[in-house]
Specification:
Shape of chain A: globular
Structural class of chain B: mainly beta
Distance between the termini of chain A: 36 Å
Number of strands of chain A: 11
Strand content of chain B: over 45%
Number of helices of chain B: 0
Radius of gyration of chain B: 13 Å
Shape of chain B: globular
Order of helices and strands of chain B: EEEEEEEEEEE
Largest sheet of chain B: 6 strands, mixed
Radius of gyration of chain A: 13 Å
Largest interface: A-B, 25 and 25 residues
Oligomer: heterodimer
Distance between the termini of chain B: 41 Å
Number of helices of chain A: 0
Chain lengths: 113, 110
């Protein structure tokens, strides 16, 4: 197992388009997190899953954002009708236990033109 | 809403000097984690503290969790160029969410 992977690594899109990102966590990890990070800031929580169940969503997450983890393995994060303010690094992390060490993926850098 | 602040935001030190970053939460935390993020990289886990007043050491790094479980610190003794990066604390708070701090960017001058 090579750790958490994310695809694509970079995405450039035009305002108004939809984008989808994928995260493959470490295989035995039940918990999966999505974060957003902008330059000079710490990761900002978006949502997390325990297996296939989405347990918590940030109040900052607008209805344009949706995440799934259909079989409790990989997860997707979709942003509809992208806005320039959505430009950021989107990080995925997984952990074996709910309060344990998080292993981060390399992130997907989104640029909205 | 819950906030986690870190100070300082930036720190430049001469190689060999010590470095400390402080993390403060507006509410009590269940635990606190520390991460290091190198320029262009992703956060990498350093350590987790759970108990009130807990102190843990990793070679030149010393981590503390405050008695009230609302603050924490990371101290690096005799910094090296390999210590360069941004250090984040992340506290487990309301809603079982991790709240990341604003980070302290460390530059080590050889």
């Amino acid at each position: 197992d090579t750790g958490v992977s994310q695809n694509p690594r970079h995405k450039i899109t035009k305002r108004g388009q939809n984008v989808t990102f994928r995260c493959d966590p470490i295989s035995e990890h039940n918990r999966l997190y999505w974060y957003r990070q902008t330059l000079g800031q710490g990761p900002e929580f978006l949502t997390y899953f325990q297996n296939e169940a989405q347990l918590e969503k940030s109040r900052l997450l607008s209805d344009r954002f949706s995440a799934e983890r259909p079989k409790g393995s990989f997860s997707t994060l979709e942003i509809q009708r992208t806005e320039q303010g959505d430009s950021a690094m989107y990080l995925c992390a997984s952990s074996f236990s709910p309060r344990g060490e998080q292993f981060f993926g390399p992130g997907t850098r989104l640029t909205v033109l | 809403g819950q906030q986690v602040m870190q100070i300082p935001q930036y720190q430049h030190v001469q190689e060999g000097e010590d470095f400390t970053t402080y993390c403060n939460s507006s509410t009590t935390l269940s635990n606190i984690q520390w991460y290091k993020q190198r320029p262009g990289g992703h956060p990498v886990f350093l350590i987790q503290l759970v108990k009130s007043g807990e102190v843990k050491k990793q070679k030149r790094l010393t981590f503390q969790f405050g008695e009230a479980k609302k603050n924490s610190s990371l101290h690096i003794t005799a910094t090296q160029t390999t210590d360069v990066g941004t250090y984040f604390c992340a506290g487990l708070g309301a809603g079982n969410q991790f709240y990341f701090g604003t980070g302290t960017s460390l530059t080590v001058i050889p």
